[in-house]
Amino acid sequence: VTVNMSAARRSGFLVQVLVQRWHPVSFGNTSYIHTGCVMEAARKGTRAKADAKKKASKKEEVKKEFIPLKKRLEMQQTGGASPRRKDDHLKDPIDNVWISRFYKWQMYSVRDAIAMHRETHHETQFNHSNALINAYIELDMSADKKNRYIDNFSNVIQLPYHFENEQQRTVLAISRNEEVIEQAWQMGVTLAAGLDVVKQVQSGEVSFQDIQHFIAEKDTLPDLVPIRGLMKRRFPSVMNGTAGSDIIPIIERFIKGVEYKTTTDKFHHDFATIEAPFGRLGMTDEQLEENLSALLNDVENQKPQKKSDQLITLVRLRTVLGPEQFKIYHKVYIRERALNVKVAAS
Amino acid sequence: QMLRSGLQGLAGLHLSCPAWAVSRAAPRTLIGSHVENKACAGPLLQQVRTTFILKRRNRVELVKAHKALGSRKLKNRHFIYELVEDTNCKKRKPVKVILMTSVDGLGSKGKVVEMSPFKARNQLLLQGLAVYASPENLEKYSKLLTEASKEEDQPSSEFARKTAEELSQKVLSISMNLDQPWQLEPWHVRVAFRKAGIYLPEEALTLPSQPIIGPDLNLQGKEFLVRVKINNKEEAPVRCRIHHFATNPRERIPWVYRHWELPAESLFPEEAPLLEELTKKYHRTRYPDQEEEV
């Protein structure tokens, strides 16, 4: 065994023994470092142990899909505090002159609220004595089960006392009867037609895109099935209140009535609001009260079976001009729930 | 003997001396070799003024019945504690005090008020504005309330003075029609106050002696004074400005950014000095001419 002294001197820390073996096959087979451990397999038990450890520590790679930063930040939004105003910590005023932001919102009767709105819309001030008066309604959309909510809904209601509401709807009326069609045109529908409307739509003469409401006689419904796809959710049905044996009252309701729809908060799904007009300041107090009562009862009737509590939490009266809103005693106007025809979700 | 065994079996521990309360920076597991622990004489009904409630991590073994309690030797492991509760973090119960003088926002002289103990001490008790509502004190100062009502310089209510102060800083914009003829009446001013969020009856208002008739664009943006009387006692002057409102949106007068911060000309010359005073008193008043110079 010869020792390569020069090599040993060159390397600092180890004395490397050059082992020259007289190997008949591999003549220049010399190795400085014992490399046998790499080439030889470890004991079976050691191998098994290493494998088991590796398997245990192996984590499943979850494939994360790429979400752009903007969307990721949006997903992290929680919407902050609930939009519902809490004033349990506030008290009622004790002085005759008081600043409202330190006290609870005062509740007024409908007559008082209307009188106050009339003051601001007087000739000497806004000069808008026949302005529309809106009801701002806050709803509790949570169902009985936790984290379950009611869907958005909408309805067109005909109020007891008619007034010029600045709402316009596109309505299509379908009937077999010529007289009915004639009457429908006079009432002011966008389009009134018989069963030939099916062929007209299929050929492209008439477009269903812009029409918001479809009203049809009950007997005509099976004939309308071929064009059902064009109407989708707007397809008339008896349950919806858009189909019936006599469509004249239905048309009247859609032309003259007031439409309201709920808007749910993006993050707080139990909070929804409705803003709908129920009269004009020129009308008498009794008429306005009756209209409001009809509106509130209709909204309350939209409550499905899966909710047992009251739907409406708050009602404020406000107008288009002016910042004032007056909270009213709404519970007085809501009657016991009647078994009306339920209008389906929008 | 049962008691003793019960005691010794206690895992819970109350440190009876707050002077040795461990600092908050300490980790949850505490090794308090400098802390004294006294075994309680009876069941844990004693009132202890503790700030930290600790629990031993390692159980202390029972001492044999025939041996003395004092022979129980505590080892290092027995001095390792875990924090159960920090009584500093608990919400304090409010404390009742009797007011000696009328305090804005709280009440009049002689009123019993409930407050957080820190606030009560720092704001009232230390300054001598109030006294603890102990049974003796309640008896002693029971006549304060009746005495107070006889005094004249007492405020009409706890909020009246503050309301008066806030009103004197306000600039009220009264919207009157641009096309229809009108004369300023108390109800117009009342409605303007209501739109601004201030509710008051017409009896509380005193309009200027000279009538204001319009529509008159010379009146636009000029100030006059209206006096408000709160609870028939406190008086507050409020600056008012007429704003002409046109029903037709096209005719409307353009909006001036935060017009209430800018000084305005006085409508009636006799009111000018007081108006100037109020303008200066309002901390947000801007003088654009001066600003331009700078």
TrEMBL record, chain A:
A cellular-component GO term for this protein: ribonucleoprotein complex
Keywords: Ribonucleoprotein, Ribosomal protein
Gene3D superfamilies (alphabetical): 3.30.190.20, 3.40.50.790
Transmembrane segments: none
Ligase keyword on record: no
The protein's name: 39S ribosomal protein L1, mitochondrial
Keyword hit for Iron: no
Record-stated family: Belongs to the universal ribosomal protein uL1 family.
Organism: Cherax quadricarinatus
PANTHER family attached to this UniProt entry: 54S RIBOSOMAL PROTEIN L1, MITOCHONDRIAL, LARGE RIBOSOMAL SUBUNIT PROTEIN UL1M
UniProtKB/TrEMBL annotation, chain B:
Any one GO molecular-function label of the UniProt entry: structural constituent of ribosome
Domain Ribosomal protein L9: start-end pairs: 95-141
Keyword Isomerase: no
Keyword Ribonucleoprotein carried by entry: yes
Keywords: Ribonucleoprotein, Ribosomal protein
GO cellular component labels: ribonucleoprotein complex; ribosome
GO biological process: translation
Family designation: Belongs to the bacterial ribosomal protein bL9 family.
PANTHER family, alphabetized: 50S RIBOSOMAL PROTEIN L9 (PTHR21368)
Protein's name in the database: Large ribosomal subunit protein bL9m
